[in-house]
Automatic annotation (TrEMBL):
It comes from Clitoria ternatea (Butterfly pea). This is Amidase domain-containing protein. The keyword Signal applies. It holds the Pfam family Amidase. Keywords: Signal. Transmembrane segments: none annotated. It comes from the Eukaryota. Residues 58-454 form the Amidase domain. InterPro entries: Amidase_dom (IPR023631), AS_sf (IPR036928). PANTHER family: AMIDASE, C869.01-LIKE PROTEIN, PUTATIVE-RELATED. Residues 1-31 form the signal peptide. The keyword Transferase does not apply. The lineage of its organism: Eukaryota, Viridiplantae, Streptophyta, Embryophyta, Tracheophyta.
Amino acid sequence: MASEKVLGFSSLQLLCLILVSFSSFLTTTSGKRFSIKEATIYDIQLAFRRNQLTSRQLVEFYQKQIQIQNPVLKGVLELNPDALAQADRADHERKVKPSGSLPWLHGIPTLLKDNIATKDKLNTTAGSYALLCSVVPRDAGVVTRLRKAGAIILGKATLSEWSHFRSDQAPSGWNARGGQGKNPYTLDDPCGSSSGSAISAAANLAAVTLGTETDGSILCPSGFNSVVGIKPTVGLTSRAGVVPISPRQDSVGPICRTVSDAALVLETIAGIDTNDKATIKASKYIPKGGYAQFLKKDGLRGKRLGIVRIFYGFGTNTFLHQTSKQHFKTLRQKGAVLVDNLEMDNINEILSEPSENTALEFELKFSLNAYLKDLVASPVRNLADVIAFNKKHPKLEKLEYGQELLVIAEKIKGIGTWKQALLNMTRWSRNGFEKLMKINKLDAVVVPFSNFSPVLAIGGYPGIIVPAGYEKGAPFGICFGGLKGSEPKLIEIAYSFEQATMIRKPPPLRKLKP
């Protein structure tokens, strides 16, 4: 396929990193230089308006970055052969339409996690050969919104195969089609399952990216790769056309280098989609005027932030203790009220009891079967077919990693067990997180890393993670979680923290050897 050949350029086409760094600067008509690397959506749109940059130049820059870095990082699975044509169209529209009339994402190259369907020349495979050459009936709901906004679909990002629901033995960030994704800072674990989206955002392989989360799959890779990830309230963004695990927990969200970019992407993709009924109910949470209005440097002022000490483990991590102490000081200096030493009822049950896994196994089978049945064409039509395909092609799918999670989901029976799991999680959310938030009148809980993701996942609550530091070169993030529909507050908090600390730095330059 033409798109896969793009990722297989010869070594003669892989420029040295010095040249790459130089090529990230464009000489403008005024003689000044504009750097694409680390540029935000605001930066890019300003460069567009000043005729310092075109969408074609932007796409070509990211394609070159992918040619050079992807053989090692493996953050991108496929490039869109129509990306340059889309860029040319965006450049033309910018010339003929009134200045300032176009959406923020117009002409912006975007990478999508490879479980988000596109009705074009790109595959949608969840990283598995079992779905290679399948034909989707339509664009995913979020893709429809991106196209309407004029965004350029640059390609598909890699992921942990089947959103890390194939086997516990498979490494995080690995899939059969793309291989092992690598953290650009450490060249090891990128965390999953939206690993490729986070790798690509961090390494400047795209302007912005989209990921999906069932439990931790946006928050964890974002934290590991020093980028910003927003896991929205379930239903705030459409899941229609996304290879599913659980309609009850799945969510689509932005993974970007800055809070402002993430807010603009969320503003673009949030909204009602008749193909996903959950969006109708969740639409009540979408603020008039969008999310960019909450990018306030003083957004921490007056916010009540809860600290649940079980997530900090100070007794065993001196570095975390010192870093958290500094961040707590920053939060207070910016006007936040920290409510410390909180305990959350049911937290041990949430983190250790198998109800969530039981529910996900049950939901995967029926939601995936429905997705596969809806495909126009596909080598597999249900979960049993996927399992059989993997058995038939053990080397292709590297079956030594196993597929026990898929097998368990296929065999699962008994709706009573599933209903009991749901009752357990509903009780834990009501008597745990919701009670904690309401009794203490909190705007958010602040937690290091993505360890809070199970709490947010089982209740469909939103979270945002922001770069918080580096330990021996390895990035980590700080996560703010809130009740359903609290994205405006979370964006205020996260943006204010980001602007006060400005911790993020791009990955180190190094010679990349495949």
